[in-house]
Amino acid sequence: MTRNKLALALAGLLFAPVAGTAFAQNAPAADQGQNTKQLQTITVTGSALPRVDTETPSPVTVISAQQIARSGFTTISDVVRSISADNSGSIPNAFTGGFAAGSSGVALRGLTVNSTLVLIDGQRAASYGLSDDGQRSFVDLNTIPIAAVERIEVLKDGASSLYGADAIAGVVNIILRPSFKGIEGTADIGNSQHGGGFTKKATFMIGGGDLEKDGHNAYVSVQYEKDNPIWTRQRGFPYNTDNLSSIGGPNPETPSNFTGSTVGSITNPATGLVQPLRGCTPNTTLVNNDPANPGSYCYQSLVNQYTQIQPSMEQGGIYGRFTVKLNDTTKAYISASYMQDKTLTVLTPEQIQNTIPVNTNNITLPVGNPSNPFAAPAPINYAFGDIPRGTNYTNHNMRLVGGVQGIIGDWNYNTTAVINHTSLDSNQFGYINYQALINSINNGSYNFANPSANSSAVRASLAPGYDKTSTSDLDSLDFNASRSLFDLPGGPAGLAVGASVRHEAQNDPTLNPNSEFEGLGNATTKGSRDVAGMYGELDLPLLESLEADVSGRFDHYSDVGNNFSPKIGLKWKPLDWVAIRGTYSKGFRAPSFAENGSSSAQGFVTKTPPASFGLLHGGDAYSTSPYAISEYTQANRSIKPEKASNFTFGVVVQPTSWLNASVDYYNIRKSNVITAPDFGSALNAYFANGGTVPGVTITPDLADPLHPAALARPALLTGEYINANSLKTTGVDVDVQGHWNFGSLKYISELQGTQIFQWKMTLPGGIVQSYVGTQGPFNLSSGAGTPRTKGSWSNTVMYGPVTVTGTLYYTSGYQETALDVGVGPGNCLALNGAGTAFLPASCHVGSFYDFDLTGSYDINEHIAVTASLMNAFDRKAPFDPANYAANNYNPTYSQSGAVGRFWNLGVKVKF
């Protein structure tokens, strides 16, 4: 088989002993053939054919175990989400207020988590029990055993031609160790400079047996990590409060916005003056003569006291694998894992004033209620500070995999069976039962004036709590085989064929049964289906310098029918050190069970009414303050799969033995995009003249108490999922790697970046919404937006027993606009307290970078000490008042800026 110098260098991407990066070896040209023979073949993500030349026509990024260790990251979530191609729609662990809280997901190309396929050893995994925003299914990265990871391969190209649905934006394939001998363990502790977040973690792995000598190998890995919470009160302004009045912004904690305080206030029905229910207590401040609410009240920052920047998390699990050599050509293995992830999310206390599911903004205490000192019903403003609110999530992931690999005649075959079950226990506490609230107000059983007098039984009757268990299942059987066919000028042609069957199911009970809990939306998902598929791949080395790869897959879904996905790729080497590659493919995404099952979802967006609406209400707080609008979307059993076409074109160069680089352009077009009705246009139409759009029903809020004749603001929007939109995104990935030897000192550098050129959504009627460089798509990305540029630059120095790595991460800023919620150029998602100016004035969220420093020192061949300083320069997260996943910053891209400087110390032993 003819292989040139570039092929050898790129094969080193997986087999070089240093960092797993693609470096050519300094060897004479005459030795290249022997070097080639020494390299084992490997199946690279995106191809079903074993190969020595690991550089396929599709761009693949490989992250080795050594690179993971030097990054300082201790979870698969952090490693994968740091990739420059991860963008809009990615789910961070810090998003504790989302539908899929307690999980983490990757979104390549900004196409949200449902368009990136996550594999473990090339096989599918069961999805998280909850759907993101009650719609998008995805694999929770927190349930993958990092201790056993050998490498992570990221295919940044469409791959439905081999893997079927969901691989539109790309594939993340986590590859676990096939074998292990010896004993290896790590122990680490870490803490934040600014308080909170103390972490402790440990891994242990033990294995024995040589597959070639003993005929078997078995190993077990165990891991554990516990992260303490970081509270907003442990950080400075603006992360520790939602009172932005000091910089001209709104203060939603005051009674004028009906969100109340723990102390509580009541309005004198005779004078209209607000007064505290009792004297102001510690952590509260007496405020007099609020223009919108004359009188006095006790101001308290609920965000400061009760919310978190980082939730409390506890992760752990065990993974084991046993491999046996049956004969000279056949081996079999079985692996099993149990991973558990616990997340405790804490929110601000529940309040009397809510718009969903029952509007209680204008609730009053009747005459005779012990907390009402007046002779007439009195409006009350109150938050239940004596009743903690939040959710305990415990996710159990059980996975059993068995496989046989061997050779029969000229065929290499591989068959794999997977049984994967997840069970997510959600324990909600502190949500107020609407009927119990009304009863307590009418019979006076709850003491608003003196909460300390309330018994635990009274509190329990108001907030009885709710437990549910959400499950998902994936059972699959996959068979594939490959062989050489005939010789071509560039080498032997290769053929791979395969077939698979699988069963998928999800059952997520209702989030809010009978809509009984105030301040809580709703979501329920239930569905199952069977999938059968056949696929094939043909690799044709037409010339020594030209390779063609053709693949295709046919799938049958029991719920949405048939689909065929083809792909063609070309790789041309005009020079020994240059490769030009390109692919064109078709892909699809099958509807999730939330989109076409027995499902529905109710989410919320925070909206500030436009200035024109405020004028109708005299500029009062009702019409100028941000508030939550409910969006209720129902499943559509007639929904069709999303379709996509994907084009890539790139150049790979290896001009010297110590430098290689790649530049790849991507172009993805999606049609039949499944979406909720155009809620943004519906809001615009409603605010303009009380109108709406087809497919959307709007339920208005209660009337403005100060201007009851004016148009009420919208409270609830309802519609079905539809195949309505199309989208296009284009951009370029750059990867430059180099290594230099200076005697006993080695230096490795890698620059990785992604630049998005466009991200456009086309709506029915030809309306085009452009999101790149803005905070849109706001709903799809949890307010994270679509930054144009994301990248990292890693530099490693190795000198004797010392290894030091510094990595700089960068994410560009974006405009604080989002067309999908009706806020485009000339407007801004966040406004000042009066609703008359942008907040910030530039309507722009700044860029963010942070620098991580890690190091290790080998005391001897068995023991090493490790250390890291994350966000070493203590960079602060840019101010983002419109993001609703966190308080005044964007956790998707700048969570480390809210955490601040963080240190870790550890030890690693190996025998």
Automatic annotation (TrEMBL):
<keyword id="KW-0812">Transmembrane</keyword>
<feature type="short sequence motif" description="TonB C-terminal box">
    <location>
        <begin position="894"/>
        <end position="911"/>
    </location>
</feature>
<dbReference type="InterPro" id="IPR010917">
    <property type="entry name" value="TonB_rcpt_CS"/>
</dbReference>
<keyword id="KW-0732">Signal</keyword>
<keyword id="KW-0998">Cell outer membrane</keyword>
<keyword id="KW-0798">TonB box</keyword>
<keyword id="KW-0472">Membrane</keyword>
<comment type="similarity">
    <text>Belongs to the TonB-dependent receptor family.</text>
</comment>
<dbReference type="Pfam" id="PF00593">
    <property type="entry name" value="TonB_dep_Rec_b-barrel"/>
</dbReference>
<dbReference type="InterPro" id="IPR012910">
    <property type="entry name" value="Plug_dom"/>
</dbReference>
<dbReference type="InterPro" id="IPR039426">
    <property type="entry name" value="TonB-dep_rcpt-like"/>
</dbReference>
<feature type="domain" description="TonB-dependent receptor plug">
    <location>
        <begin position="55"/>
        <end position="171"/>
    </location>
</feature>
<keyword id="KW-0675">Receptor</keyword>
<dbReference type="InterPro" id="IPR036942">
    <property type="entry name" value="Beta-barrel_TonB_sf"/>
</dbReference>
<dbReference type="InterPro" id="IPR037066">
    <property type="entry name" value="Plug_dom_sf"/>
</dbReference>
<protein>
    <submittedName>
        <fullName>TonB-dependent receptor</fullName>
    </submittedName>
</protein>
<dbReference type="InterPro" id="IPR000531">
    <property type="entry name" value="Beta-barrel_TonB"/>
</dbReference>
<feature type="signal peptide">
    <location>
        <begin position="1"/>
        <end position="24"/>
    </location>
</feature>
<keyword id="KW-1134">Transmembrane beta strand</keyword>
<dbReference type="Pfam" id="PF07715">
    <property type="entry name" value="Plug"/>
</dbReference>
<feature type="domain" description="TonB-dependent receptor-like beta-barrel">
    <location>
        <begin position="381"/>
        <end position="871"/>
    </location>
</feature>
<keyword id="KW-0813">Transport</keyword>
